Amino acid sequence: MGHGWEGAVLKLFRAKDFKFTVTGAEQVTEHYRRLTFTDGGLLAALGVHPTMWVRLWFDNDGRPHQRGYTLVDPDVENGAFAIEFALHDGCASDWSRTAKPGDVIEASVQGTGFTEPDPSPERLLVVGDAASLPAINSLLDAFPETPATIWFETADDDELPFRVDPIRHDLRKIARGEDGAALLEQVREELPHFTKEPERIYLWIAAEAKSTRALTAFARKELGVPKQRAHTLAYWRAA
Fold first, then answer.
1. Could you give the CA distance from residue 220 to residue 203 in angstroms, rounded to a whole number?
2. Residue 67, beta-bridge partner list
3. SS3 at position 5
4. Of all residues in the chain, what percent carry a pLDDT higher than 70?
5. What DSSP element (H or E) covers 190?
6. Could you report the per-residue pLDDT of 101-132, keeping only the tens digit for each?
């Protein structure tokens, strides 16, 4: 399958292409599915960093479509990893529902990266949802001794695979309302209590595009969180 104009742009930015092979599938919940893969040489070539993600290519009625997904439990020695899919309407979810061992999917890697905050944070402040949960878990794994406050927007009561420690991690679930208003309201109210000394925290926001933009502007312009103490990335866009 060709990758169309998006693939051509990624090539200009020196994206690297790989092919992954499905080795297993697990229906974690009704709305969440985990697939395991062999990596096609990805990990040996590029190494691993927290929240590392790849672009998978799907067929969307004859047109190429790419979506970004975080690597879960990457195993460099065995060249393997998992990817967790939050299920909804769309070609990526449709593919994951029927994927079986032996199926192959093309992938490109461009844009992923992680800069270790210096000094190391005394608390992580995390905002996300089911789409960014694998990356949230990866971030928590990368800072195993660091306390974290996590604002998590959810649309259902699925028992998602959180990697939270009730002693060190404060998970605050927020029901997704219209336009993500409930998430914005609660984070705007509670985040200022943690950002009075920005050099001691690390803020990580990965949610719906509009919510991510609004909270990024709030943190930087109103709370004064410097760019080097925060990372934000829109993980999806509401229709």
1. 10
2. 56
3. helix
4. 92
5. helix 181-190
6. 999 999 999 877 788 888 999 999 999 998 89
- The reported pLDDT for the residue numbered 61 is 87
Nearest to 199 by CA among 145, 133, 123, 144: 123
Q: How far apart are CA 48 and CA 114, in angstroms?
A: 10
Q: Is the pLDDT of residue 81 over 60?
A: yes
82's tokens: 């998992």
CA distance 178 to 182: 8
**What is the Cα–Cα distance from 232 to 156, expressed in whole angstroms?**
24
Domains of the chain, first to last: 4-109 (2.40.30.10), 123-232 (3.40.50.80)
Nearest one of 173, 171, 158 to 32, comparing CA atoms: 158
Query: How far apart, in Å, are the Cα atoms of 50 and each of 20, 87, 115, 160, 231?
Result: 20, 23, 9, 20, 12
Mean pLDDT confidence for 181-202: 95
**119, 122, 16, 2: which is closest to 63 by C-alpha?**
2
Q: Return the pLDDT at 30.
A: 87
| Tokens read off for 237 | 């866009």
> What whole-number distance in Å separates Cα of residue 233 and Cα of residue 128?
10
Separation between Cα atoms, residue 234 and residue 28, nearest integer Å: 24
**Burial of 151 by CB count in 10 Å (0-12 exposed, 13-18 middle, 19+ buried)?**
buried
| pLDDT tens digits, one per residue of 211-235 | 999 999 999 999 999 999 999 988 7
